[in-house]
């Protein structure tokens, strides 16, 4: 959970000006000194001064601030505009409005200037929403400038809430649908959507309820998709679980919806344009966001779920979470129990309430981003309870709790083969949907082209995407059968001087060899062991790559004892111990790698 903005100490503009005036009158400070003293004193007290206009008394005033001047002029036009139905302004007025909005955008888009905070503190976002609502859709330039300025004012949770409360999602969607042939308005409108959806689960939900996914699909199928770069930013913002205020995000369901209606397929189609596409990396990032939201994340609501990898040791006593070795001392079970209890409480409370009220058929899952199939299973359990008399009302959920608890425990701890067998359509993974659209072939083509043309950005992006697609067992097989490991080794030689690309390659091989002895053997035959040793020797300071190499080595040897002798014979122990000593972030991964290599003194 994140800290609430209500806990941050703030001060009004009037109180700040009063403190400066007090320094001048009571302490005899000159204006500049009084201003600086007030700023330092409040900063030491932890007061948030963002949005405060700091002007020197007698030299300048709040009204001299260029942002305030823009807002004052826009307020005049806002009162003059009336409404779309009864316009009272001329074309010249709209041109002036556009000029002011452009000026406001140029001021507020400067990072670190604080102008965006000044504008929002003085009602700028509310004002822009009102003006954009009143601008005639035919006045393209004014509307375009309004959306662009609005995007620069939405920068934190507070402003995204202002946008939501003032019906911003509905307003922007109406503008986009009415101006769907104007690429500039679409581009700036999507900038607003991306900014507003970032970090705010309710805004994401509002846009999804307005069917923004279908609108995005329509544009992706159109001829102007290459000219709307922010379209890809919207996909990323909508499908990223970045609101720490909610227990569980719904983005998993959104991502699945994006995949099933065809957005993933349209993004794959863009890959066929190759390196000539200006949006290639953006499209890759958007598709990766769709692929990365797996079923586990829908349950946990945590972005960490996407990094969850588990590999049982020989004795089954330890596991890895996010690549870190965890000793099975019972502490992680306690954390899991607390997490599940936190997730289940709203389910049980709401379910019992609806059972008593006879609303089982409309049973929902509040605050939990589960898919429809899971909800149907719980609904079936509730229907069974409903048929067994009032006894179950007096003793809430005596049967459904064990059933659902089994689902939670069994599913969260591993991707249940039982569940996949009985409900294959319910849990068909988005990675597989993407692969069925030719995604793996298209990704490898871009990887091969990026290596041939020495394009590091494309290589990193597509290797990262491939590691997410490899999360599906069927995709693992397809990647290996297409010569994927050999192609990755070729890429590693082409970017042998860039540890960031090498790290992404290691991530792919880590996923491919997870719980797959055959793939681990294939990787060793392709020279992955030598690749790991050479990279770790060559870039001892690249701590992220060093850590990823340790994780890769774990998966190469944990189920393949024959690989241990090969790597140990080539001196891997000394290299791993050096990484462990040099980088604190590598210690857990390095210790686990040494243990899986069969070394008893792995903790020394």
Automatic annotation (TrEMBL):
Domain LRRK2 ARM repeat as annotated: residue spans: 457-595
Keywords from the named record: Repeat
Start and end residues of each stretch annotated as Disordered: 310-338
SUPFAM superfamilies: ARM repeat
Top-level taxon: Eukaryota
UniProt keyword annotation of Repeat present: yes
Descriptive protein name: LRRK2 ARM repeat domain-containing protein
Organism, scientific name: Stephania japonica
